[in-house]
What we know:
globular, alpha/beta, 8 strands, TIM Barrel
Amino acid sequence: MTLAERLARVDAGIADAARAAGRDPGSITRIVVTKFHPVSVVEELYALGVRDVGENRQQELTEKVHSAGDLDDLRWHFIGQAQTNKAKAIRAAASVVHSVDRAKIANALDSAADSDAAVLEVLLQVNLTDDPARGGVAPADLERLAEHVGGCRSLRLRGVMAVAPLDEEPARAFARLSGYADRVRAIMPEATWISAGMTADYADAIAAGATHLRIGSAITGPRPVHG
């Protein structure tokens, strides 16, 4: 199956899931995760109409943004764990950062802005597990972090992001995330994005109100072996 065929199959699945949930498929943004794939895949996706791509690692994001610099209306989403010492590089490359999970990261991204930098769109990553070692802010600290990000002059809080735990039904996990999104919107009414759902669980995410899906291998094919 070609890249174009895989993209069309996933988009049809997204549309079906949206209609089943009584939602407009056009209200859902499909982000293609190109982790470990060469920039030529990004260029091919662009030719197929894709305008939102995601990367997990700062170095790979930076390299691809530089290599694909002439694709000027492409939106790059950073979806991996953000580190403060890489905040400046992430800020320089990403259009959206999905993984703000503590004030320290928000401060680093904010202070990395040049005086004339565009506002950076960010989402709060919420930990849906009981394991504090997993990425994401604890739900109990969600409002505090939302208020902090709201006070950062060069950041714009757009909503929440999460990864469904492996040991739980995705529908249950995403239902909790929907509730957390409501809590953030009570503070920031414009923070309407919910980034949730990957290849295996995007239909459940759509049913729970996801606005942004992060889909990789179902579209790009198996990832190249990475040493």
